Amino acid sequence: MVSEQCDVVVVGAGLSGMCAARKLTRRGRQVVVLEAQDRTGGRVCHEEVEIDGHHHSFDLGAAYLGTNQTALIQLCTELGLCMDFDDPSADVIPVRAEGEAVYYLNGKRVLEDPEATLPWAAFNPISLFGIWRMQLRLDRFIQVMKNHIHDPWNAPNAERWDDWSVEDFLKSDVFFTRIDEDMLRIGVRAVWSVEPSEISFLYFLWYAASAGGIDTLLDNQGKDAAQGFYFRHGAHDVCDRLTRELGPAVRLGHPVRRIEQDLEGVTITTRTNDRLRARHAIVAVSPSVSSRIEYDPPLRPDRTHLVQRNPLGRTVKCYAVYDEPFWHERYSGLSIGNTTPLIWTMDYTVPPGPPAIMAFVVADHADALSGRPAHDIERTVCTALAETFQDERFRSPRRFIYKDWSADPWAWGGPTGVSPPGALTAFGRALRRPFGRIHWAGAEAATVWMGYLDGAVNAGHAAADGILTAGP
Ligand SMILES: Cc1cc2nc3c(=O)[nH]c(=O)nc-3n(C[C@H](O)[C@H](O)[C@H](O)COP(=O)(O)OP(=O)(O)OC[C@H]3O[C@@H](n4cnc5c(N)ncnc54)[C@H](O)[C@@H]3O)c2cc1C
Ligand SMILES: [Mg+2]
């Protein structure tokens, strides 16, 4: 029996679903958001930790943003956050830039002075030339993709680029040094948490174009960088504000099991057998997670195959908390490399909170850690920190906090869904195309900053627009 009727049911109270719901509510639509878990936010997720009687929050999912993520910034401003990137008391904090950065490549440590005028200045001229040449080459391709943000499958060379993985691209060219190849491999692992052989070269270029370029994607410092800033009160602050605004429209603990549709509307059934009737549905989860729902009538073949070819990356995100910020004596806390299980670290000290460093273990290294006991993960990560920064004090954190996203039953991994070779040209059209009365949101359905918080906002708004213009 149908217990309730509304205009739109949104599946998933992540950032994307809540943005869709907010936009529709503001346009007078009656919306119900069904969320499987007992919290909102999805891949925005935090842990509150008590240290010396004070509560500190650590973002275990998304944390970072940059100044050209305009939809996210606009949303945050509307929700009452101060997004003035030049104001030291604002709700966004720049990533620590003082101190040396460490590149730990193929067993060799290279230190970069933050005052250096050129990026990568710490490398020898031949390596530098290789990196520069690689960036130039990729930039040329990415410029091409910028004309095909909405239809990457129509780009010149699309079929050929989609046949290749990023690893195939690396093998297709003779490079000057190993450093440029390895830097690209590290970049892929850091952004998508997959190995370079797992990701389509076309998808790589499209994603970079959707973020405005390869440098904004990879940079950890500087204003435009995707990882230039983080939220003073955590990214979950944004989702908490949205949750409060939506109020009783958000129903926690309601995993959607089935969506039926007919000419007049949709009927949604939850795992607890609640049934809702609506004019439209928005499914605001990643493509592969959307495949856990039954659809009647069944999905079109292209969507059926797309959802089987959009796996999420594998990420273990960690924080080590210390009594003193001893690494500030010399280092910024930023490191990237391929020598230890750590792909990337950054300082995460939020005054007046305790000194902390964030570390990512991803892709093959994450597989090796997944399912291991917590003390094993802590030892592996802290040993790697000590080795990267050549400082034994990293071995004994006062607290260690982590989340293995592959073990999250409602995310199935992170940070985002990734196209393997062949998938985008064959089935990419199904990423966003509505299926009757079902519209698709979620960060993977975005065309600007896809995969990011900003993309989640964009895709949520686009799905809402699709319904607002669809008529009854
Ligand atoms: C470790 C990590 C680090 C990241 N770092 C960054 C970063 O620094 N900056 C950045 O911009 N982005 C980052 N991202 C990516 C960012 O988190 C995501 O792009 C964004 O949060 C996705 O939002 P969404 O609403 O599309 O999906 P989700 O957040 O996945 O939301 C989907 C929601 O749907 C729910 N759900 C799933 N199935 C059902 C069902 N059947 N019924 C009901 N509910 C269901 C889920 O529980 C979830 O709440 C990171 C992600 C991870 C995992
Ligand atoms: Mg969502």
Automatic annotation (TrEMBL):
InterPro entries: Amino_oxidase, FAD/NAD-bd_sf, Flavin_amine_oxidase, Flavin_MAO. This is Amine oxidase domain-containing protein. One of its GO terms (molecular function) is oxidoreductase activity. It comes from the Bacteria. PANTHER family: AMINE OXIDASE (PTHR43563), AMINE OXIDASE [FLAVIN-CONTAINING] B (PTHR43563:SF1). FAD binds at residues 16, 35-36, 256, 444. It comes from Chondromyces crocatus. Keywords: Oxidoreductase. It holds the Pfam family Amino_oxidase. Residues 15-468 form the Amine oxidase domain. Its cofactor is FAD. Belongs to the flavin monoamine oxidase family. Substrate binds at residue 360.
